[in-house]
Specification:
Elements lengths: L14 H9 L2 H4 L7 H10 L2 H4 L10 H6 L3 H9 L11 H13 L5 H17 L1
């Protein structure tokens, strides 16, 4: 699933679970259109109460730290080096400024720097 950028819930992919879910009437699964009603009901019996209604929490990679730490030199080679494939497509001076600001922690440029880096790596793979 990760190879194809799919978000899946592996336990819910078992065909027996899916077949069972299709046999449950909709008004039992979504009373008052409350999402995950049955899962939360089961959870209330097995989990601490404070865990049942927690909001969704995404997973994020520590990209900001990668850009300033262990992969800083690799970013510089791929994006900011003279002759980098990205030079003909994006303003390297602006990217250099953003990277310096990001490393100095005067501005958070995580997302545009990451996008530029992934674009640079994609371009290099096309050669």
């Amino acid at each position: 699933s990760m190879q194809h950028s799919l978000e899946v819930r592996c336990p819910l992919l078992d065909h027996r679970v899916v077949e069972f879910a299709f046999r449950i009437p909709t008004d039992r699964k979504l009373p008052g259109l409350k999402p995950k009603h049955l899962l939360r009901s089961i959870g209330r019996r097995r989990l601490p109460a404070e865990n049942i209604d927690l909001p969704k929490k995404g997973f994020t990679a520590p990209v900001s730290e990668w850009l300033t730490g262990p992969f800083r030199d690799r970013f510089t080679d791929d994006v900011l080096a003279p002759g980098a494939a990205i030079g003909g497509h994006l303003d390297q001076e602006l990217l250099r400024t953003w990277h310096a600001e990001h490393c100095a922690r005067t501005a958070d440029r995580t997302y545009p720097l990451w996008a530029a880096w992934m674009f640079a790596r994609w371009l290099a793979a096309q050669e």
